[in-house]
Write the structure tokens for this entry.
Amino acid sequence: MKCSDSIIDKSVAYLHTEQRNIDTIGIDKQDTETIVRWINREDKKVAYCVEKAIPQISNAIDLLYERMKDGGRLVYAGAGTSARIAYMDAAECPPTYKTDYETVITVMAGGRDCVFRANEHLEDEAESARKDLRDVKLCEKDTVVAATASGRTPYCVAALKYAEEVGAGRISIACNPDSEVGKNADVAIEIDTGAEAIMGSTRMKAGTAQKFVMNMLSTGVMIRLGHTYDNLLLGYEASNSKVSDRHIRMYAEAVGNPDLSHAKEQLEKAHGNMRIAFFMEMYGVNYEKGREVIEQTGGNIKKALSILEGKE
């Protein structure tokens, strides 16, 4: 059925994410397993859609790195599902990479309350984006990553325009081509996920695509910033000095010694701090020196190793 052009918003009606999916017509008449298989069939397409945007995602990581290495922040901006995914990504960076809780943050249309209680009308309040970014003291060192499935959310467009005013970096994530946010970004990441299994439910493929991209952005920049040792997380620190099985196995991998009893002993000497334990064992320093190097380098493992190896 084609709606009359006189009663629809053309800017929304012709978005790829807003179309009816011909491959899932009749889904409500299927048995449960078929419903799941049809949804899964659509989900399989997401990774291939993201793959097409790898050059833009790579450029975005490089942009983030150049600013964050000098103390800048990654500031997600979004509404609805996009912002909820961003909040999750931001919340997981400190425990994973031992970053400060202000290094990766999120501003959302309607504020934090909308994480749990949706109010989709607030995404149209463009001026609130400017206020939210002023409240977090956005500056030229920072980078705003505006995420929106439609690519036209006023809150996100306004966030990028304000970022330009203060000289901050600008990255957009959208799930439609030729997006409005993309036109206001230094790097436009556009993942054309197409029609959803359920028409208009952009928390599905579009949401998954945005999760993929945010994972890549935060993980990629943390690797570039030196928060990993090869593909290992040496930032883990035991809570209350209780060394977990994960700590022990990862430490054993890092030092190349499969003796788990040895790994546990070394971690306990370092009060559960994996990086300090690694420095103590591999470079013969004491606990105090290991902590000093971590503080000196802001947790950058590559820089810490350079100092311990006498290269800096």
Summary: The first strand starts at residue 74 and ends at 78. The CA atoms of residues 170 and 185 lie 5 Å apart.
